[in-house]
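Q: I'm writing up a methods section and want to include an example of the input and output format. Could you take the sequence below and give the corresponding predicted structure tokens, formatted cleanly so I can copy it straight into the document?
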Amino acid sequence: MPTFSGFQFKRPQQLAALLLLMLLAQCLWIFHRQTLTSRDYDFARCGREMWEKPNPLAGYFTTCGNLPDGTMGYRVAGLPLTLQRILADQNADTSTWEMRHELGYVLLLLHSGFLLTGIFLGGALWWVTRRLYGNIGGFIALALYCFCPPVIHACTYPNNEILTAFGLFASLYTAMGVAHAMQGPRHKWRSRIVLLTLTLAFTAASHVAAFLLALLLSIAFLVYLAVGRRAYILPIMMTAGIGTLLLLFASYDFSLDAFSYFFRSGAGRIWFSLQPARHWFLSLPNSAVTLAAATALLLYLPTRRSRYFGNTVPLLLAILFFTLITPGISSEPTLWAVPFLLTFIAGVFADFLETRYRPVFLVMTGSLLLLEAALSLLALP
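A: Here is the clean output for your methods example:
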């Protein structure tokens, strides 16, 4: 089998790639049916101004004014259009509306970054769950993810939610990776600390509240897991924190006035409510994941075999994000919760697929995955 710098592309990787291609195909089908909206034009205009001609204003550096939901979504939307304009040698004043008449794939360019982020999140989910629960756990999580209607929706329009979901998931599991690496030689710490810095910066540029939670939870995981090495936690987190702020400052084009709004906006406020979770779990398109989550929870609670750190942490994180609301800004923390929920489901199901009840659980798991795929395909326009 082919290998690339130590990465093996064997049967597990091939099957995972096939599932991600199914996610890609569903999103491309939606793109084919979509038309450009006012939201698309707003994200394109703001993003292109950030890349091409930042113009310092009071509190921000584009004509879009203060954007409390982070710069990342706008930059992701605008970058492909900016690159296309440069490669096509178009005038800097060419608007997205004019590009729409000159190119037949402006919508694909505009939405491509969010689709790629969704694919990266799926890859990260598969990698984490496969490391924790083996091949079968990885495939359960990835299959549920690739046919999850909220995920497909978030991959097909400009938003900060899919970016935040990726940043949170990557940040928290990278923090756990740092804690485990601290038990080994120091030369193995550096790459993980750099990755933690990058993922925290990505999260911060996507959503303020998510960054604050990621920072606090990362510290908590380090304190819990880095037994005997806790004296190093403060310098590690200070290094990651300073690096994060520098990268975030760069995302504001090093404009102090614009950067200050990150700390002054109300986007960091959080509260808790059961309403988002109730709405999500009672939604028909999510019914397969709801059934899988209910089954996993019923199996987890009375079974000591499943009540370990690898299963408990994603369950607690899923509960946290499903009940989280952000009063200062419109957001979808339920989407942030989805990767953690699928990780929990995969862990419990993988545990029981190793017992004498394996034939029963294979049938049940296969039925749930088929139901999820059917609901996803029926939901496509």
